[in-house]
Design a protein that fits this description.
Layout (H helix, E strand, L loop, with lengths): L2 E6 L20 E6 L6 H15 L6 E6 L1 H10 L6 E5 L5 H11 L4 H7 L1 E3 L5 E3 H9 L8 E6 L7 H11 L2 E5 L9 H14 L1
Parallel strand pairs: 1-2, 1-3, 3-4, 4-7, 7-8
Antiparallel strand pairs: 5-6
Helix pairs in contact: 1-2
């Protein structure tokens, strides 16, 4: 029986990105890009779990690679699943903090968001009381062996936040100096590949 590598993309990404990681695995592994449709964490919890349960019986072990919000959704949905190891690239680990920061930038109070339910921000991202309430009541609990790659210039998650999170779950944390949240330039991808080879 083969092993599976499940790749979960970030916002604006796609399942085809999984192809990048095929070179790291032998023929004993099948690399699968998960083309999820969820836009909200409560949708992801159902969709991710259903997908995972539908394929697990076909493989000896499961290896997880996840990017940005894909990593957040994975931690929210798959914490109780049988996953051998996880590799997270620029994971979102504190969604409450991100939403509160967006509210501060948009000068939106919790009272206003509660009353309005949804408020559109000047930078295009809607603020939702339902979303904030959900992520507050569903904190991440993650005990799977994990390696994290983080970029120094990540504007979504602070170094303090990612460091505290990595320490809390016992994950290794690798930081790319002058890197960005989205690893995409040639230099960034070389760094990512070297990190991947080191911890695989």
């Amino acid at each position: 029986m083969k092993n599976a590598v499940i790749y979960i993309h970030g916002k604006g990404g796609n399942a085809a990105e999984a192809n990048h990681y095929r070179k790291f695995f032998s023929d004993e592994y099948e690399v699968i890009g998960f083309d999820y449709k969820s836009e909200f964490p409560w949708e992801a919890k159902k969709e991710f779990s259903k997908f995972f349960d539908s394929i697990t019986s076909q493989y000896s072990s499961i290896f997880l690679i996840a990017n940005s919000i894909g990593a957040y959704y994975a931690m929210l949905s798959l914490a109780d699943k049988s996953i051998e190891k996880a590799m997270f690239i620029s994971p979102i680990v504190d969604m409450v903090r991100i939403i509160l920061n967006m509210m501060t930038l948009s000068k939106v109070s919790e009272k206003a968001l509660y009353e309005e339910k949804v408020i559109t921000t000047s930078f295009g991202e809607p603020l939702s009381w339902e979303y904030l309430s959900y992520v507050r009541s569903h904190p991440i609990i993650w005990n799977i062996p994990t390696n994290i790659l983080y970029a120094e210039n990540d504007t979504i998650t602070s170094l303090e936040t990612i460091t505290n999170f990595a320490n809390s779950i016992g994950a290794t944390l690798t930081i790319m100096n002058n890197g960005e949240h989205w690893f995409h330039t040639e230099g960034q991808m070389i760094f990512l590949d070297n990190w991947f080879k080191k911890f695989i």
